[in-house]
Design brief:
The chain is mostly helical. The chain contains 15 helices and two strands.
């Protein structure tokens, strides 16, 4: 079951990245589709559906009630919801100001910060093989990020016109926004981990509650931003002020977003897949991964999607500007990425330098516990048989 959850989480994350890149590169009315607050509202709308799903499954007895679940004030979930909201929006801003390679490297902060804080505040333990796995993973991601800088990714000269050249000031702002986004995401994951473990709450319920709070907050913000004036100085959005404007005159322009989708079926499909998958599936499986493993494992597994995304854009032929170009250095990066992940989640044991000591101790402990449970069951069975014999 755990393997299925992990696979679904990785695939869902890959669908998010692919659909977002596609919708961001679709030109409609000579402009790209850029409505971060509108997409955020759609995400929380679908995420809130999890509450209905949870109630239906509970009524039909498809979900077994967890009697260990503790009561808590559900308003506490506004904290990770707001952090998640800020993280998503700031990430959208930074994606417009920075290159994708730099963004990938800066997002490593999520792994490092989540791992460090989970040890400090959630009493998680990072053993030698975990630290080695994280090291491999970081090296792999850095190699994948610098590969496009060393080798040109495009054959078509016109492709360079799609990417905007940020000013030094905007570039610095983009780095700050990406770092803040990573920090907000890290704390959001950690708080979810604490709530799920401490209060024993079902992940479907967690997803739905956060969706409702997020829907209320994002809906309020979207309505307000329809009337906040904002002038985009460039359609290319290479400066910070242009990034703040979803339309040409306001911070958000949902009517224009609907118009763009109505005029382009491909855009409508990509937007629908993105918000539906992100809100209903990705967040859902994210909470399950946190429950079955921990917040650090969730942050690490999220990077495996890079391999699926790369293969997708390597094979696609519809858009030469989105098509990935293969370089030998990327093989090294993906090998380290996969190796780091399998070492961290203990799919591979390294029998030297004491890297498997903790796994051996855990196996011995599990073996003793299993043996104790077996003996306890046998004693109970014998006792039951003797009592029945006496009664006869």
């Amino acid at each position: 079951m755990k393997n299925v959850i992990v696979a679904c989480f990785i695939i869902s994350g890959a669908i998010n990245s692919i659909s977002y890149q596609l919708l961001s590169n679709i030109q409609e009315s000579s402009e790209q589709f850029y409505h971060p607050w509108f997409l955020l509202l759609g995400q929380f709308l679908f995420q809130s559906i999890s509450v209905i799903l949870f109630l239906i499954l509970s009524e039909t007895k498809k979900i077994t009630p967890d009697f260990n679940e503790k009561k808590m004030n559900i308003t506490y979930f506004t904290i990770p919801t707001i952090l998640d909201l800020l993280g998503v929006v700031l990430f959208s801003f930074s994606m417009k100001l920075l290159s994708s390679g730099l963004v990938i490297v800066l997002r490593l902060i999520i792994i490092l910060l989540t791992g460090l804080l989970s040890v400090m505040y959630l009493n998680n333990v990072l053993n030698r093989h975990n630290i080695l796995g994280i090291t491999f993973l970081i090296c792999g991601i850095v190699i994948l990020a610098i590969s496009p800088l060393l080798f040109s990714n495009y054959d078509d000269e016109n492709c360079n016109n799609r990417e905007c050249t940020s000013s030094t000031q905007s570039y610095g702002i983009g780095i700050i926004l990406c770092i803040l986004s990573s920090i907000f995401h890290s704390f959001s994951i950690l708080i979810e981990d604490k709530f799920i473990r401490e209060f024993k709450i079902n992940p479907i319920k967690v997803t739905g509650i956060q969706g409702i709070f997020g829907l209320l907050i994002s809906f309020t913000l979207v309505i307000l931003f329809q009337f906040v004036p904002c002038t985009a100085t460039s359609k290319c959005r290479e400066d910070f002020m242009s990034v703040l404007c979803a339309g040409n005159f306001f911070v958000e322009d949902s009517i224009y977003a609907f118009k763009q989708m109505a005029d382009n079926g491909k855009l409508l499909t990509c937007v629908t897949i993105f918000i539906f998958n992100l809100g209903l599936y990705y967040k859902f499986f994210s909470c399950f991964v946190i429950k079955e493993f921990n917040s650090t494992t969730r942050a690490i597994l999220d990077n495996i999607k890079l391999l699926i995304v790369f293969i997708f854009f390597l094979l696609q032929t519809n858009d030469s500007c989105l098509k990935e170009k293969f370089h030998w250095l990327q093989i090294v990066g993906f090998i380290l990425l996969i190796l780091g992940t399998v070492v961290y989640i203990e799919l591979v044991k390294i029998p030297f330098l004491g890297l498997n000591n903790q796994m051996q101790k855990q196996e011995e402990s599990d073996g003793k516990l299993k043996k104790f449970d077996t003996q306890q069951f046998e004693l109970e069975s014998v006792s039951t048989f003797e009592n029945n014999s006496i009664n006869l």
